[in-house]
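tool_call: predict_structure(chain=1)
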Amino acid sequence: MANNAETNESKSTGRRSTKIGVVVSNKMQKSVVVAVENTVMSGMYQKYVKRTSRFMAHCENNDVNVGDRVLIEETRPLSKRKRWNVREVIARAN
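tool_result:
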């Protein structure tokens, strides 16, 4: 189970799913944008292609910087686009 959390795959604990991604923007107050990469098999070429999804997440302490690897958790709707919460910072950017 711990090995699954280190990859970019999402796992669900109960009803709340979690994802691991990289912070790409922190210019808002108490909000960050997290990019999550996953690989999808191409139907035509039968090769794996990277797909990136961007999620807006709530960060209460405002201590996350661009380039940090974070674990985000699904939560109730906080605003029009925010449905995720930053649970923990896995690795800080250099």
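agent: The longest strand covers residues 16-28. Proceeding to next step.
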